[in-house]
């Protein structure tokens, strides 16, 4: 995900569209979420209402990541959405005249090392591992306590004729 400055005081989300890369004006486009996702609307509105700044975006990335991904997906799948404000990246001169020389950041999300399993080996190990013996014994003891015997007795034909 790439974020870039639109102006010296506004930060936008870079998206790849069929007619070239564009920048979504985040502060002006938060209305996309208004009726059905007020949480994303509130998070983005709070962070980008005044245009946004790099330190607060990085600090609150855990909360902003999901709404920004959703905003980017909406922009890529439905660029004509009336709530989106798109600006062509070709029209923007990404130069910073302010004291902060950062004009864009590219954030790559990675799963924690424990969750990454590109070969599927850990998943296969979990699938085929035999449970420890004490877990089997505990499970069978729980089954014995919860087991009930229900007897279904069929009346004999002689008893049916007597009724």
State the shape. elongated
The DSSP helix count reads 7
Low-confidence residue ranges:
none
Query: What percent of residues are in strands?
Result: 15-25%
Biggest β-sheet: count, sense, barrel? 5 strands, antiparallel
Query: What's the average pLDDT?
Result: 76
| Structural class by secondary-structure content | alpha+beta
Termini separation comes to 80 Å
Number of strands: 5
Helix content: 40-55%
Report the C-alpha radius of gyration, rounded.
Answer: 30 Å
Largest sheet, spatial ordering of strands: 4-3-2-1-5
The run of helices and strands is EEEHHHHEEHHH
Short description:
The protein is α+β, with helices and mostly antiparallel strands. The chain has seven helices and five strands; from the N terminus they run βββααααββααα. It has a five-stranded antiparallel sheet with strand order 4-3-2-1-5.
């Amino acid at each position: 995900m790439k974020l870039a400055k639109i102006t010296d005081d506004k930060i936008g989300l870079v998206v790849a569209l069929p007619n070239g890369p564009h920048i979504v004006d985040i502060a002006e486009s938060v209305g996309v979420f208004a009726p059905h996702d007020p949480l994303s609307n509130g998070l983005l509105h709070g962070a980008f209402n005044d245009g946004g700044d790099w330190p607060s975006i990085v600090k609150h990335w855990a909360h902003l990541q999901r709404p920004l991904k959703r905003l980017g997906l909406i922009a890529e799948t439905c660029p004509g959405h009336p709530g989106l404000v798109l600006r062509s990246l070709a029209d923007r001169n990404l130069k910073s005249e302010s004291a902060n020389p950062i004009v864009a950041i590219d954030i790559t999300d990675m799963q924690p090392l424990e969750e990454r399993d590109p070969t599927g080996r850990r998943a296969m190990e979990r699938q085929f591992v035999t449970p420890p013996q004490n877990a089997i014994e505990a499970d069978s003891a729980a089954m014995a306590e919860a087991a009930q015997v229900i007897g279904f007795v069929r009346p004999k034909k002689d008893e049916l004729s007597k009724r």
